[in-house]
């Protein structure tokens, strides 16, 4: 803190050099990529670095039947109500005192220091430096596996995590790239401290950080597609793992979602980039990682699972190049064989997962929390791509579970910005365990935004327009739920259950994947729904879309929509910086 006690000093650049400080055990680069760098390599390989961190955490480890490390933390979710940043919140002496405690620890306490890289994109790669006490080496062990080895550059972002502080407080100085995490031992706090700043920094550069998954879909498409309709890069597909649990390799003639062979002689292979925005438990990770039941030469691969950034040139920069921080509750080998294989590999790190005698693992055990986690290596997940960046993106999906929304609807740029601002989702155990299952709104489905949220919506619309990005709202829940969710007054839902088709209709993974695949093939036909105010499909190969007309499941459907629009508009009007054209596009 300065002499006045009201302004922060430039912290990140004033901390001691961890390579020479006697109180710091430094874990830097691996190999000999940058022998002349300011911070030379400390280990010959990543494996050697991970092994050293694991040895330091041995007292906290329960070794599983798979040979992996399992740890139990005291905190089992992020502490949003204890988090503040100096851009959106007025910091006072108490806030800077939290920062000072973190700085003092770096200067005086015995700490571990680990440098890793977030991102691989030439314009979106940052060095992240994490400090933790040796007694919490398990945090460093798990966190390090998420990111790539450093190349020896100076840190762009620094986090000091001190779980043994009595008071819980997360304080962020965004412009300085510094975060203090006090009183929490949750690995997710360390991870998100860097991804939050990754998104903030790229927004400053003209892009927009997204809490989104990304994937690359390679499909056979004909129906009039010519060379002039596609980018030269679309001439063949990106690499896919034909041995993955979600990509077959035996067929020579690709089929559509109904199993019909596509035999159009004018067909060609086309690569489509897709983004999925949604909080946990909405299907974001499932759809991002799903192989779409495609057979060679078609295929699909997950590129990123959690955080990426849409850049002004249309590329999408990934963040986590080393691993993924996945939920494991109720993980089943039959349903998700690829993910199960990665989680049960000896390279994984389990967090708050039930482990019994002899190291037996029970993924249904929620004795600690429903927010059970594992850090897995990308190299062990068959559906993961070799790279983490998309060269371009074609489709962006807002995942909702609002039962007044159809399985899919197409949005114009203003409507897409409305969907972005609404961020309709479901609270999860990762966010607020006490509210898990409640319908909520989070702008951009991103609880890590720094800066005015209305500006995020304006920036999003500008990028959608300039990149000619197709946007959709995708309902992965059901239509016609009895209470119509928490988004509207249940009295405005009408009497549900009188339809000849039944009281409600679920939208399963099969239906959603069919929609994604046929959109990639450009074989979905559309018309405007005047009641909803959006374009809705009239034909989706492989799906009887006529069975999913929301009005058939909700009596007084128009009244329910009017109530929903009014409530949505009032919500949008609460954002000072949001453009009026976006507010007027409410649906």
Could you please describe the fold and organization of this structure?
Strands 1, 4, 5, 6, 7, 8, 9 and 10 form an eight-stranded mixed β-sheet that branches. By secondary structure, the chain is α/β, with parallel strands linked by helices. Strand 9 (169-173) and strand 10 (178-182) form a beta hairpin. The protein is built from eleven helices and 32 strands. Mean pLDDT is 88; it is low at 1-6, 223-235, 239-252 and 482-502. It folds into two domains: 12-66 and 79-205, 3-Layer(aba) Sandwich (Phosphoenolpyruvate Carboxykinase, domain 1); 209-318 and 389-587, Alpha-Beta Complex (Phosphoenolpyruvate Carboxykinase, domain 3). The chain is globular and about 70 Å long. It is 21% helix and 24% strand. The longest helix is centred in the N-terminal third of the chain and has 18 residues, at 187-204.
Observed structural traits:
587 residues; alpha/beta; Phosphoenolpyruvate Carboxykinase, domain 3; 2 domains; six-stranded mixed sheet; 32 strands; disordered N terminus
